[in-house]
Amino acid sequence: MGATGEATATAGARPAPGQGLTWSLRGRGPEDVPVLGDPGPPGGHPAGPATGRGVRVCVVDSGVERDHPLVGEPAASWVVVKDAESGEITVEPTTTGDTCGHGTACAGIIRRTAPECEIHSVRVLGERFSGTGDILMAGLRWAVEQRFDVVNLSLSTTRSRFAQELHSLADSAYFARTVIVASAHNTPVESFPWRFASVISVGSHQEDDPGLHLYNPEPPVEFFGPGQNVTVPWLGGRTIRTTGNSFATPYVAGLCARILSAHPRMTAFQLKNALYLSAANVRHEPSAEHPPRPSTAAGDTRDDSED
Predict the structure, then answer these.
(1) 218-234: b or e for each residue (b if 16 or more CB lie within 10 Å)?
(2) Which of 13, 98, 200, 218 has the fewest CB atoms in 10 Å of its CB?
(3) Cα dist. 34→12, 16, 27, 144, 190 in Å?
(4) 303, 186 in Cβ contact below 8 A?
(5) Which element (helix H / strand E) includes 10?
């Protein structure tokens, strides 16, 4: 699905946003703009096995440890570099792996959820989770330009000066069928890009069921995934238990990869609807056959991690 890791689109790739039929349709009718559609999975659940095969997922984060047994070798790894003298920002191939463990954790959750997807890494964070808004922007923009099917962004920025550019970039991704799955901040502050409707925004729930996601009837956070006291891969081939919206986000990104592997022609808005329909708390008609699923939470937890 999608183009290769090169900046230019390959033959047969989706047209770039802004090309072709953009503003109006004059002198032509429905027969001139045929679309081979996909109704999507019934109830949001793909029929048969859906493992993420053929779906390209990009993790924009701190990098991915190259030989972690719960992740596997990334298909490609890149790093965003800013020249100290000129200020020029470039995206370059890298073999450095992960600088702090956060990206490896996200990649491992995606791998666990969609085991046959193709994982790519773009490193925008340094040691101790350090990073800047312009580096984040450059890495996310590059990922969108590469036409990845899914971009996992378990990061956000509180810098409002980046909001307009991030909004424009998120819209461009949406129209190009690159789905950005973005983590909400762990504290009630204004940050971006999860606030935008053109991304899939994710927070965490406290249920014990690791395969459960919920729809939020009071957005802007749209979905909740398992992200509290979860076991994730970490540096050195080990695992840790941790909490944060960062770790709910790759679960939902993995769900997107699974759905797209079975229904590759789905649009971004169809994919969001499939997540809505398959959420455990969404009921189409109240009935004795489909009672609300009881809470499986073991107890109250406190989310004190920082993205």
Answers:
(1) eeebbbbbbbbbbbbbb
(2) 218
(3) 16, 18, 15, 26, 41
(4) yes
(5) none
Beta strand ranges found along 194-235 (DSSP E):
200-205, 214-215, 223-226, 230-233
Q: Which of 135, 165, 170, 3 lies closest to 60, judged by CA?
A: 135
* Alpha-carbon distances, residue 253 vs 158, 248, 291 (angstroms): 22, 9, 27
For residue 36, the 8-state DSSP code is -
- pTM, two decimal places: 0.85
The total number of residues shown for the chain amounts to 307
Helix 245-262 vs helix 268-278: angle between axes, to the nearest 10 degrees?
A: 110
Placement of tokens 């592997």 in the chain: 261
Q: In which element (H, E) is residue 279 found?
A: none
Lowest mean pLDDT segment, chosen from 94-103, 158-167, 295-304: 295-304
- Cβ distance 154 to 185 under 8 Å? no
Token pair belonging to 158: 């509180």
Separation of alpha carbons 294 and 268, rounded Å:
30
